[in-house]
Amino acid sequence: MKTYFSLIIVLVLVASVANSAQPITEEKAWTEIYAVSTPAPHLVVSNIWGGVRVRTGESGEIAMSVSEVRVASNEEYFQMSLERLKLDIEADSSGVSIIVGDHEERWRRVDRCRGCRVDYQFDILVPPDATVDVGTVMDGLVDVAGVAGVVSASNVNGPVSIDAIRNCDEISSVNGRVNIGFSRAPLHDCSIETINGDITLDIPVNTSLDVTIDLFNGDIKSEFPVGPLVLPATIEHVTEDGHNRYRIQQLSGIRIGAGGPTYTIASMNGDVRIQKN
Predict the structure, then answer these.
(1) Is 276 left (phi over 0), alpha (psi -120 to 50) or beta?
(2) What number is the average pLDDT over the span 97-117?
């Protein structure tokens, strides 16, 4: 694997040498290129603060531009953040994995570094057939466009924008809208979910789908003619105080065209729009 690395660092220390209790900010920016050789390389990004933007680039490489803004309340916590909020990158010929912080225990480690924060903005170019699984938690947009491989994307406090893709697997946001646009009729099952946010699906006119819908406060609007889709009831068996209890859930379903891949769409507080593109 060949890696080409260039680094531009802008360092701002908002503190005097004599007073280590002042907040500290450090800014960096750099680019890297990773060679990949598999037909459908993977890209995985797990961010905490900041956004992730993915577009298609050259075959045989994943090119990444990163901006980093690291903030801590004082010198002690700044040094702690360098230890605990690292950028972990694993790359080989099959793809690239980018994890911010300790993936297994990162929230516990962040909590111990009071006032620490590292904002990353990732701008990444992938081969057209790459499989993409990217997400962030706070203060960023997850934005993927033009990828021919299967796309998964998530956000917690922010929107998800997916455009000109062929297939998705899991798309979600807790507090934010989800927009998904397809360059051709999808052929893969997909799960799309929000808690507080609308879901918009832009699909070609020749698309056929089976759609399972779970809405609590919201409506579904479709520019396509739809028919009913009969779904089996889900029965959950629980035992409480020696008694058998059953919870029965019956979801709604619609069929677009002749039916096809199953799209499971759920929103607690939001509308669902299925539009022609």
Answers:
(1) beta
(2) 68
